[in-house]
Specification:
With about 190 residues, this protein is α+β, with helices and mostly antiparallel strands. It has helices spanning about 5-10, 20-40, 80-95, 150-155, 160-170, and strands at about 60-65, 70-75, 110-120, 120-125, 135-140, 145, 180-185, 190. β5 and β6 form a beta hairpin.
Length: about 190
């Protein structure tokens, strides 16, 4: 069984929280409401998100059902207000991930959600990567792969394995990080439901 969202988040390097407990609760609630609304084919109730939650940010929404991964979708680049990104990613993770069947209305109330709000991307050298702190984006020609900071912690990977797995996620050779691939990193504030 995979570690729970709270177990995985506890293993990431601690950093000052940008989002208050209230903001975190709002984003988690919006994610649930978005999934529910999509399942019922209605418009979700947005409430009135704060200006902080309306900032354009990249983010990922990961879904768990009974402790098992059920879907993960997100956006690296800050194309939309954060609250909208979370809502779209949650609905897509529930219904549009090819490797999982769509979440049913019966399953939806049992979903646990983990949100990763991303920093902007920045270039990084391989020896500067910190496991549990940095997520990676590797670009090799037209191919691009991303892994969140919690992934190598969950799998017990070292730095080299993390780099190789991000290359493979891009559909590039595992050694592409040594062969001129662009390596970028980001940090993430990760929070979720117990």
């Amino acid at each position: 069984m995979s570690p729970s969202p709270s177990d995985r988040a506890a293993h990431t390097v601690s950093q000052t929280a940008e989002f208050s407990l209230e903001e975190r609760a709002t984003l988690l609630s919006l994610a649930h409401r978005s999934i529910d609304a999509r399942l019922r084919s209605v418009d979700p109730d947005l409430g009135s998100p704060s200006s902080h939650l309306a900032e354009h940010r990249g983010a990922f929404t990961t879904l768990y059902l009974h402790g098992e991964l059920r879907g993960c979708v997100g956006y690296v680049l800050p194309a939309h207000p954060l609250y909208r990104t979370i809502m779209e990613a949650a609905a897509a993770a529930a219904l549009n991930v090819i490797r999982f069947p769509p979440v049913t209305r019966e399953e939806a109330p049992h979903l646990k959600i983990e949100i990763s709000v991303l920093s902007p991307l920045f270039p990084i050298s391989a020896d500067e990567i910190e496991i549990g702190r940095h997520g990676l984006v590797i670009t090799y020609g037209m191919r691009r792969g991303l892994l969140l900071p919690q992934v190598p912690v969950e799998h017990g990977w070292n730095r080299q394995t993390f780099l190789e797995q991000t290359c493979l996620k891009a559909g590039a050779p595992a050694e592409a990080w040594r062969q001129g691939a662009l390596i970028e990193a980001f940090t993430a504030e990760v929070f979720g439901e117990l």
